């Protein structure tokens, strides 16, 4: 309003200046709210309250669901840990030297008292390769392995040709194969 | 009236103001639950990291019979439900005992089963029996079976290591228990009252130098020989001469840690360090090394060996009677002549006894091995000033002093390692809970004799394992093997003197590139032959050939020197 008429002050100011004694209009506002119904407001508040409760409930449910999931996952973890421990123990028992030896002799493998090696790159034979004795291995002592089964080597024939994985697992620890290529690189 | 009221007031004041602190404290103590959180014990591993002894989760099942009764439950039903799950195999447990325990309402605590697996505990939990509780109680298992029980040892009822490595390294293995305390009412935690928890520190695992396969083979072989010879005991030590690492330490009779009630207490220790014996002829190796190192003899030095000699009023013989022989120094060792050995020490000069003592000490006699195993005996080696007249002449051939098997093995490891003695060691390193490996400090190494001397003694020892020597049974075709037999008179306190024998053989292979030293000692064989060459050499041969294959050590392909034994 910078470009207002320069001849006098704006209306509002003039008005106030013109009617300084009038204080009556307060009465007009009176009764304005008093006549209105309280119901819509109550409904609004109730709705807000209900909505809040529902949200709270949903929130709680969501949180609880998370807690249940955590609990289930923790239970599962502890079960899996127990299972892992159990499997590790049985693996250790199966790969114990005594267990391997009894497995090997059940396959008809015998200990080799005369080590010999084949160098795969040069084809050289190191040592004096001799067929291992096929009669029962000299094992009068009870095997210390708790899971040892009676040895079958006494009846195993010399023609028994162990499969590759068997001989690999046996030679790893029991050194039962006469021709195991053990030359180091 | 006023008097009574003032009495009440006084009592009130006493309770509220004077004793309040004490009552408050005892109330807090009554509702505070305090539990020890047991630290997981470290494992004992073999050189490949496989567990020899390991701590696993387990649960003790306990019950509160009073609670069972107050819940109007039938102890008999409880007992039969539990009995179906407990025991090994499941169902083998005594139902009557369980019922009796559960019916005993004079106590609020009964132990129903000790250290069951978590799997079984989950099954028990699923039964939903109120008043039955599970208390974590880790147990030690031996996944490889009792392969190294004397070395590993066991844990006593209070959870402390009671023998072997379990005892020697108990502090490290045990870790540090934690504790938890919280406020509880009726056994349930009071929320928001605060928990004071101090987490347990798990124990450190120990990685040993033991090779489980070689240990097993050694144990099996010595068990067989001890029972075949009806011997009192036997030991086998396998060592890597280059590092001093013990690869196997077997003793027979052994025991099973899972069945301690059946154990003879005499079998609990590790004889390889606890049992001392007179080494006999294996000690001649030290005398020969001393003679060569002192420059008074060489492998071809000519020695005239009569059938008997007299020294200080004692007449000395060789093992088998013979006429005068013309042996080289190599021949003296190969045929294990006591007389030739005594004659060799005559050339040491006036300081003979001091020279002998110095070499015996430097080769490790009379000192602890450094393995730190409980019950070790350092043996007996008197200083020269205390040597009796005849002892001066028996010591060169290994009588009148005593050693343990590891000390004796270490002598041969020293020769095998070009005259440098590496302190025997059993612990490769430590593994913390995070799996981080910390290597044990390197073993100390001292040069005892020159590499040249060691080489000459090694060549002399090869003749022992020849047809001309005392131990052709120790031969491994294709390999060069060096060693020495020992057949010593055995001091036995039961007969108050010498009775019986100690048969031994110690050797290494390949002789020109030694990677393994194996010793076999058999105490008091009573059936069949008793010579070291007849019963200990075959044990050496079996264990050595197994170990050579197991570690993939090929023969060197060189020819043995075949030093002359006669002239």
UniProtKB/TrEMBL annotation, chain A:
Keywords: Membrane, Transmembrane, Transmembrane helix. It comes from the Bacteria. The chain crosses the membrane at residues 38-59. Residues 121-185 are annotated as: Disordered. Residues 148-185 have a biased composition (Low complexity). This is Cell division protein FtsL. It comes from Actinocrinis puniceicyclus.
């Amino acid at each position: 309003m910078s470009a207002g008429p320069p001849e006098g002050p704006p209306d509002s100011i003039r008005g106030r200046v013109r009617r300084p004694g009038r204080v009556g209009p307060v009465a007009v506002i009176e009764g304005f709210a008093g006549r209105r119904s309280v119901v819509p407001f109550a409904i609004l508040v109730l709705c807000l309250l209900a909505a809040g409760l529902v949200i709270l409930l949903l929130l709680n449910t969501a949180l609880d669901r998370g807690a249940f999931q955590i609990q289930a996952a923790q239970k599962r973890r502890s079960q899996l840990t127990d299972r892992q421990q159990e499997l590790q123990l049985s693996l250790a028992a199966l790969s114990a030297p005594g267990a391997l030896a009894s497995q090997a002799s059940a396959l008809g493998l015998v200990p080799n008292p005369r080590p010999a090696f084949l160098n795969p790159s040069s084809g050289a034979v190191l040592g004096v390769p001799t067929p291992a004795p096929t009669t029962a291995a000299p094992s009068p002592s009870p095997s210390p392995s708790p899971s040892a089964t009676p040895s079958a080597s006494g009846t195993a024939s010399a023609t028994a040709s162990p499969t590759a994985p068997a001989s690999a697992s046996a030679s790893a620890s029991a050194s039962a194969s006469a021709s195991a290529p053990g030359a180091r690189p | 009236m006023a008097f009574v009221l003032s009495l009440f007031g006084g009592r009130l004041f006493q309770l509220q103001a004077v004793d309040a602190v004490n009552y408050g404290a005892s109330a807090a103590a009554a509702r505070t639950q305090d539990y020890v959180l047991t630290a997981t014990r470290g494992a004992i591993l073999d050189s490949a990291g496989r567990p020899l002894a390991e701590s696993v989760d387990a649960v003790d099942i306990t019950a509160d019979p009073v609670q069972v009764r107050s819940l109007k439950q039938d102890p008999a039903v409880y007992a039969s439900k539990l009995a179906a799950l407990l025991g090994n195999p499941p169902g083998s447990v005594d139902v009557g005992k369980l019922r009796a325990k559960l019916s005993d309402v004079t106590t609020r605590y009964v132990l129903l089963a000790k250290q069951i697996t978590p799997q079984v505990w989950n099954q028990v939990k699923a039964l939903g029996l109120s008043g039955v509780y599970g208390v974590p109680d880790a147990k030690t298992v031996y996944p490889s079976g009792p392969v190294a029980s004397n070395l590993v040892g066991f844990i006593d009822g209070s959870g402390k290591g009671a023998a072997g490595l379990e005892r020697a390294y108990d502090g490290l293995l045990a870790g540090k228990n934690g504790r938890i305390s919280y406020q509880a009412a009726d056994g349930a935690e009071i929320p928001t009252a605060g928990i004071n928890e101090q987490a347990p520190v798990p124990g450190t695992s120990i990685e040993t130098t033991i090779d489980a396969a070689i240990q097993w083979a050694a144990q099996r072989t010595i068990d067989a020989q001890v029972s075949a010879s009806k011997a009192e005991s036997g030991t086998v030590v396998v060592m890597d001469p280059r590092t001093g690492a013990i690869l196997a330490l077997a003793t027979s009779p052994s025991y099973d840690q899972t069945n301690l009630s059946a154990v003879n207490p005499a079998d609990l220790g590790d004889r390889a360090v606890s049992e001392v014996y007179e080494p006999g002829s294996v000690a001649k190796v030290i005398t020969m090394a001393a003679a060569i190192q002192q420059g008074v003899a060489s492998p071809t030095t000519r020695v005239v060996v009569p059938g008997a000699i007299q020294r200080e009023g004692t007449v000395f013989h060789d093992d088998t009677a013979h006429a005068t022989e013309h042996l080289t120094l190599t021949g003296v060792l190969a045929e294990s002549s006591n007389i030739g050995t005594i004659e060799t020490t005559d050339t040491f000069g006036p300081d003979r006894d001091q020279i002998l003592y110095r070499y015996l000490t430097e080769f490790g006699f009379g000192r602890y091995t450094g393995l730190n195993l409980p019950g070790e005996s350092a043996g007996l080696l008197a200083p020269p000033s205390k040597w009796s007249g005849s002892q001066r002449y028996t010591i060169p051939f290994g009588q009148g002093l005593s050693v343990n098997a590891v000390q004796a093995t270490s002598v041969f490891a020293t020769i095998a390692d070009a005259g440098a003695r590496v302190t025997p060691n059993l612990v490769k390193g430590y593994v913390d809970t995070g799996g981080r490996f910390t290597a044990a400090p390197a073993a100390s190494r001292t040069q005892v004799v020159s590499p040249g001397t060691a080489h000459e003694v090694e060549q002399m020892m090869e003749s022992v394992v020849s047809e001309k020597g005392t131990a052709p049974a120790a031969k491994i075709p294709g390999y060069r093997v060096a060693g020495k037999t020992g057949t010593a008179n055995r001091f036995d306190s039961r007969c108050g003197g010498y009775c019986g024998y100690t048969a031994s053989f110690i050797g290494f292979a390949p002789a020109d590139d030694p990677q393994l030293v194996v010793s076999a000692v058999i105490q008091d064989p009573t059936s069949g032959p008793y010579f070291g060459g007849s019963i200990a050499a075959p044990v050496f041969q079996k264990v050595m050939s197994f170990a050579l294959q197991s570690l993939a050590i090929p023969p060197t392909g060189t020819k043995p020197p075949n030093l002359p034994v006669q002239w």
